[in-house]
Each structure stands twice: as C-alpha cells, then as structure tokens.
Input
Amino acid sequence: MIFDTWKTTAALASVLVLSACSNGGGDTTGDDGAGSDDGGTTIVRHETDPYPSTYTPRASTPTLIRGATVFDGVGGQIEIGDVLMVDGRIAAVGTGLEAPEGATVIDGAGRYVTPGVIDIHSHLGVYPSPGVSAHSDGNEATQPVTSEVWVEHSVWPQDPGFEAALAGGITTLHILPGSANLFGGRGITLRNVSGRTVQEMKFPDAPYTLKMACGENPARVYGNRGRSPATDMGNMAGYRAAWQRASDYRDRWHDYWEDAEAGEDVSAPTRDIELDTLMGVLDGDILVHMHCYRSDQMAQIIDMSNEFDYQVSVFHHAVESYKIPDILAEANACSAVWADWGGFKMEAYDSIRENLPLLHANGACAMIHSDDALNIQRLNQEVAKALADGRAAGLEITEAEAWAWLSSNPARGLGIDDQTGSLVEGLRGDVVLWSGNPFSTYTRADQVWIDGSLRYDRSDESLQPVRDFMVGQPGEGDQ
Output
C-alpha cells in the first residue's frame, strides 16, 4: 500500500516574520518581506501564504430540497425535512420551508440529504491515476525531516480520481504527503472542484497541516539505508531534535520582533524554510496530522507534544485508538480510522472492527478516512460497516450521529468546522442528495452541491465533470 500519509502572539496575527536575506547575513534593509512598523525601523516580515487560494465559488441559484430525511451532520435528524440554500450558504433547515422566488425546488421524498462528505486523509493528485512511477509524487523520502516541502506543489489537478470522488459525495478533501518520514511536509485542504491549478481548488483560509509519521515506516525506510532512525527510539530522538531546533528558531524570531518593535537596532535571524513550518506548529497556526497505529506510540507522541507545547490535531490510521479513548479525549486529539483494515503489518495487527464506534461511545473525536483512491468513492459505506459492527457490540449509535464521522468531525480536525461539515444556517452549502439511505450499498449520490452550486448530477451527463486527461479515454460510462 502507499505510505500514509491557536498561542499566536500579536506580532504573528497575520504574518510570520522571517529573514529577507537568503545568504544568512540577517540584513533587515529590505526584500519582499521587509516593512517599516513605525515609519523608521525596518522590521523583516514574510508572507505566510505565498501561494494563496484563488478558489471562487461557482454560480448558484437558490435551491430548496423538500421532504427528504435530513441528517444535519451533528447528530440531528428530520424525518420529512427541508434544506434551503441561498447565495451558496445554508439558509434554513427544518420543515415546511418556503421557496424564495426563482428557486429550484427538488422533491426529496424517499431520499436523504446530508452535508457533503469530507475525506481527511487522501493522496489524490499526488498518487494520481494512472498509477505509474512518474506520478508517484507524495513522498520526499530523501531525509527523515522534510517539513520544508508542501504537498500542494505535487498535486496534479487533472487526476480523474477527483471526479470519481465527487460522484461519491466528496465535497472537501485533505491531501497529505506520504509517511516515509518523521516530518513529511505540509498538507492542504481542497474543494472538490475542477481547476487548472491547485490554487483554484484550495479551501480559502483553511489552516495548513503538517504530516508526521511514527512507527514502522520511517524506521524501515531509513534503517534500511543504514541511518537513523532505525527504531522507535530513533524516531522519538529525531522528532525531539527537530522540535528543539524549531523552539530555538522560534525564540530567536520572537526575541528579534520584540527588540525591533521596541526600536532597537537588531538583525533578523536567517530564514529556514524547514523550520518555518515547525515554528508555525509551535505558534498554533499549523495543525499536526500524524500517522500512528499503536496506542502506546500515540500516548508517547502526546507526551512529546506536551514537552514542546504543541497540539496533535488528528492521529491517522490509529488502529489501536480504542485502547486509549480517555487519553485522546483529554488531549483533544481526534482519530481518523478505517472501518476494517488491519493486520497487514505488525503495528496494524491488533486492529478491531469496532474501533470507530468504540471511540465515539467513549467520548473521543473520531472519523472515517480513505487513504485510497477507490475507498474515497464509498466512504458512506465504510461508515455503514463500522456502525453495524458497533451495534453488534451493543453500542447504541444512531445513523444521524454516525454521519458526524463523515462530515463535522473531519471538518473539526481540519479547523474548518466553522465553514462546513454540517447543515447549519450560515455555513457553506456543501450538500449531498442521496437516492436512498446513504448507509445502504444500493444508494448512490444523486446530486452534489459545493457552495450551493450543483457540481454533480447522476441523471445529467453535462453535470458529470471530466478532467481533460480523461477526454477520449476508455472506461466512461454509467456512474
């Protein structure tokens, strides 16, 4: 299988301040990142988002879905409910809603409406189809610490997997580097829309993430090369050394900003792009997403996060999370898991099918993820399996509760739950109308809206987007 993959000071409210001098001289006299804070003293600053989102919501019309079963994504269910989208946002959810003038009205009788599915762990675009070696662009497996790389610079927007995922109800997805390294680089959150560039797909203002990996992967990759890390203790030593460098780097910059803003004649530290990302984590601006299977390793990582005062947002794969739900809940760390994958290597050996529902039942934040170009197309069915396994174990979890595993919880893990993930008034109109109960294997996504714009319609070929790469390719047919 493919390798897996706020304490902000006032001075950091909008930008990180970084050296404008690439030769290490600490020159503060100017560059694109330099500026004068008081009209005299020049303080070196640098843009934290040099590749900003250019995503623009597509045109939309007011739309009312009437008479469907509604899962709101945060545990609520309405048996014969309505969902109204206006100006790209959720305008109302309830019963007996009136359609605005000029609105499109859709009969949802016998069907279900949910928030769009969010996949928090995808490699689409960096391991695209066709899966040839030239497309293997997700692991910078050249040294254990590669936090200077950004996965968006590897994403190929024409990956036909994006359209296949859209047909499965995916409206937002988080692209991660692989898990060969201790620090694999930055991840990026995308809107599942067609774009010529990755920036046209970037979720506006979504926090950057940092992919880390523990356990067998980095130890195997680098141990087989006769270098550290080759063991779990080597992994931990490598993390701690990097976090110490980052802590020192952050302190130098914070001291510089404090002195410069006080009017002292000081030189800026030398910029280090690798440490920029780690400093962003320490300052609470970048979210840690960590590949980790075993419960004891996750507990050690949480201890290390306390040592260096940062937050782990999500553990990925996390097949033994069911053993430590209390520790995870106390640390406010979520788990992104599979329904039933396990046993394919030693650290995945003690997996159980009840992992996801047990986490939920014990008060921990949990969600489904794909890590796979095919699995992403049917994540609703993966949750159906986990829900059934939980119920067989005696756990009383409703279907409406379980939908949080597909929408609001991954939105929380990505820091975008104030924008999407639930059918709440004012949030983005990311909505799926399903042909029936979405936990049935017979159900398909009939229509998918992103920001209130109808982006997919199973009954209308003109609303089944095809990337340029697939034009003229075999394999097109009924979705």
User: Anything to note?
Assistant: Residues 232-261 form the longest helix (30 residues). The chain has ten helices and 18 strands.
